[in-house]
Amino acid sequence: MDKQSKLVKLFTGEQIMISRLKQELETAGINPLIQDGFKQGIAAGFGGGVPSAIDIFVSESDLPQALEILEAITEE
Predict the structure, then answer these.
(1) How far apart are CA 18 and CA 11, in angstroms?
(2) 20-62, pLDDT tens digit by residue?
């Protein structure tokens, strides 16, 4: 991911879908960023976030290709 690129949220969902999407994005050469507020809250010593609300972000420049991948996965 280019350090100058802006990150944009691609999708919010459950662990299984996020894992599948992450794998497909990486196969296409896109390096996503995963943000799991629930696990971060537990690690910090307090409960925070929703277990099924994990965010996946991609570089703004990768967004068009990432959206195509997301669409292909959700159509299956």
Answers:
(1) 8
(2) 999 999 999 999 999 986 555 555 556 555 566 899 999 999 9
